[in-house]
Design a protein that fits this description.
YycH/YycI_2; 22% helix; 38% strand; Transcriptional regulator; ten-stranded mixed β-sheet; alpha+beta; YycH
Length: 461
């Protein structure tokens, strides 16, 4: 047995060596079948339309005052308006002081003196206004916000003064300006001379009617303007594109893979990553974003900083799908800051009455941090068609309100033209509409088509 053991070992060793040579040869001769890995394909996101704060807070109208109670108005689609916007950064204001207006002084400046009125949609924080015009560095304006800047010519001094109005506080501050009477008269007012004439409507708070002896020498006029004659507007039809849930999740969550969905009993979908959440109301084509902010310490921010924070938030989350402008800044019942931005088509705001709101973005913030936001998920896409409308003048509107007993016209505090949105299956119709505000009753929405000259019927919808 022993004499066969050594030869057996030799044979096995030889077989192993041969097998090793064969395997080595196979590796050299037969290359593996490599599979090329293709680079990852990314779906390009739709562009986010960002806006600067200066573009969000621009005025909505410029009113030209010519004396003898004659006034004209230019809006954002007019060349005269654009000219004033280009000039505003060159205006310098200095030497500010509180200014008390009596009934006679109001009448003199508003109805008799040459002037130019720049009207904002609501009260704009003072520092934000400073981005549109130039204040001297040492300025001290005792107002929280400004809703009107009124330039007027004082003939006795041959100077142009500016009045800064705060309708919320019912206060006025006056300043000197760098504007020459010649520029006001021969440039600004000359350009606005051919614009549609307006009727100035004055609203005086009742507290001044029953003022105390100390207040008898002062008053405050709120104003709005109605066209003296008929004007033309278009009824538009636009196609629209719903914003997809995928796009919303991508915009509001840092890691979409962590997002889970919950269906409520009313079929409302909630998407959450455990911290933030988005409620999507598919029937309304709208959403609510919620982020339960935890602020370790109170942060003192100005209204301008809060407004800038809201604008930055929209810039980074889905963006401004269409043209929006700042409309209102208010405090909520629990002392949080609520900022509203309204959508515009051209010079006119959108108003929605149905169950599919298209008109506003509303943001609630706490110490500058956004905690909730409501916005539409309808994105106006492309123009489809239009119809030419002849719009009721101010006198026609007031006559209709009286004839139908819709309101006491003496109590109207504001009336303006807007587009009412009607959402159909494939399009959104924008209907020219008079929006009439009356205290202690619902806002009136009156289709603006004139009946004079064969304009067709009008009525409340």
């Amino acid at each position: 047995m022993k004499r066969w053991l050594e030869p057996a070992k030799t044979v096995i060793l030889c077989l192993l060596v041969v097998a090793s040579f064969c395997l080595t040869a196979a590796i050299w001769i037969n290359q593996p079948n490599f599979q090329m890995i293709e680079p990852a394909k990314y779906t390009e996101s739709k562009p986010v339309f960002e806006k600067q704060l200066e573009k969000i807070i621009t005025p909505f109208a410029v009113v030209f005052h010519y004396g003898q109670d004659r006034h004209t108005k230019a809006v954002a689609t007019d060349g005269q308006f654009s000219m004033i916007m280009r000039e505003m950064p060159r205006w310098i204001f200095l030497d500010f002081s509180p200014f008390t207006m009596t009934e006679d002084k109001w009448r003199e400046i508003a109805r008799e003196k040459l002037g130019l009125e720049v009207r904002f949609r609501s009260s704009i924080p003072l520092a934000a206004v400073g981005r549109l015009v130039t204040f001297r560095e040492d300025y001290n304006i005792p107002l929280k916000g400004i809703d009107r800047i009124w330039l007027y010519h004082e003939p006795e001094e041959d100077l142009v003064y500016a009045l800064f109005f705060s309708g919320e506080e019912e206060k006025i501050v006056r300043s000197r300006t760098s504007i020459s009477p010649k520029d006001l008269r021969d440039s600004y007012l000359a350009n606005g001379n051919q614009m549609p004439e307006q009727i100035m409507k004055v609203v005086i708070p009742k507290r001044y009617t029953y003022a105390s002896p100390a207040e008898k020498g002062q008053t405050y006029w709120h104003m709005y303007y109605l066209p003296k004659h008929q004007i033309r507007m278009h009824q538009f039809s636009y196609s629209y594109e719903p914003v997809s849930v995928e796009r919303v999740i991508e915009a509001y969550f840092l890691d979409p893979s962590l997002v889970r969905q919950i269906m409520e009993r009313d079929k409302t979908m909630i998407y959450t990553d455990g911290s933030r959440s988005i409620q999507v109301r598919s029937e309304q084509m709208a959403m609510t974003f919620t982020d339960p902010a935890y602020q370790q310490r109170a942060v003192q921010l100005s209204d301008t900083e809060k407004l800038q924070g809201a604008v930055n938030f929209v810039n980074k989350h889905l963006g401004w799908l269409d043209d929006y402008y700042f409309e209102r800044f208010r405090k909520s019942y629990n002392d949080k800051d609520v900022m509203t931005f309204r959508q515009y088509i051209g010079a006119y705001p959108l108003v929605s009455k149905g169950d599919k709101p298209v008109d506003t973005i509303e943001i609630t913030s706490e110490a500058g941090q956004v905690v909730t936001m409501n916005r539409s998920l309808l994105d106006l896409d492309s123009y489809v068609a239009h119809k030419d409308w002849k719009v009721m003048s101010g006198p026609e509107l007031y006559n209709l309100i009286r004839e139908r007993n819709l309101a006491n016209t003496d109590e109207i505090t504001n009336a303006y033209l807007a587009y009412q949105t009607l959402v159909a299956e494939d399009t959104i119709d924008l209907i020219p509409t008079w929006v009439v505000e009356v205290p202690n009753q619902p806002t009136l929405y009156i289709p603006a088509r004139s009946t004079e000259g064969g304009g067709g019927s009008i009525g409340l919808e």
